[in-house]
């Protein structure tokens, strides 16, 4: 969980987490409605057969019993919805946190930085982060190789114009990455 001014923040990626919570609440509400209806119907049928001998008082009993049942049921549904929401926020935090961190890592890679690939203990998506780290290492090796080729090209005289143009284009495309790499290395030294 991220911390902001000494408190933990559970809502990391609202879009992902809100979908989890809404799905859970809808599923819970439908389940509660079905279970409550079946329970009410079964209890009332059994109860009405035993009470039939009382005659007209059955309507009063039904209305009193129905009101109490509805109030109790509604209270329990609200309580369960609150607990389910809290549970889903905490569980989705284990997905939204890593998703947020992966997004940040990808942004840093685009900027030419080489981020640290770590997640908190217990987070999900660790296999994706491991693959992303492998990709980053290959990307880093590729950038270093291309930078070396460009340096060698600058120090040699190549008579092939098409090769010169291709290498110059490559240098232009990779210049921002190499520049950022030097900035990151300078920051690490400080």
Concise description?
The protein is mainly alpha-helical.
Structural notes for this entry:
The chain is mainly alpha-helical and 190 residues long. It has 2 domains: 1-97, no CATH class; 111-190, no CATH class. The protein is 79% helix and 3% strand. The chain has helices at residues 14-51, 57-110, 126-155, 161-189, and strands spanning 2-4, 7-9. The protein has a two-stranded antiparallel ribbon with strand order 1-2. A hairpin with a 2-residue loop joins strand 1 (2-4) and strand 2 (7-9). It is rod-shaped and about 110 Å long.
Keywords summarizing the entry:
190 residues; mainly alpha; 2 domains; two-stranded antiparallel ribbon; 4 helices; rod-shaped
């Amino acid at each position: 969980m991220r911390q902001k001014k000494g408190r933990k923040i559970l809502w990391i990626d609202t879009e992902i987490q809100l979908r989890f919570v809404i799905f859970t609440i809808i599923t819970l509400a439908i389940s509660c409605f079905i279970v409550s209806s079946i329970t009410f119907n079964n209890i009332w049928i059994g109860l009405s057969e035993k009470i039939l001998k009382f005659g007209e008082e059955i309507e009063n009993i039904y209305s009193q019993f129905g009101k109490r049942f509805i109030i109790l049921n509604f209270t329990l549904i609200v309580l369960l919805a609150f607990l389910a929401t809290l549970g889903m926020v905490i569980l989705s935090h284990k997905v939204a946190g890593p998703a947020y961190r992966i997004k940040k890592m990808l942004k840093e890679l685009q900027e030419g930085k080489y981020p640290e690939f770590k997640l908190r203990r217990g987070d999900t998506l660790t296999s994706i982060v491991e693959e992303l780290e492998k990709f980053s290492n290959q990307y880093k090796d590729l950038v270093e190789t291309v930078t070396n080729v460009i340096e060698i090209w600058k120090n040699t005289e190549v008579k092939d114009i098409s090769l010169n143009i291709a290498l110059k284009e490559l240098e232009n495309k990779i210049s921002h990455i190499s520049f950022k790499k030097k900035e990151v290395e300078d920051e690490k030294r400080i």
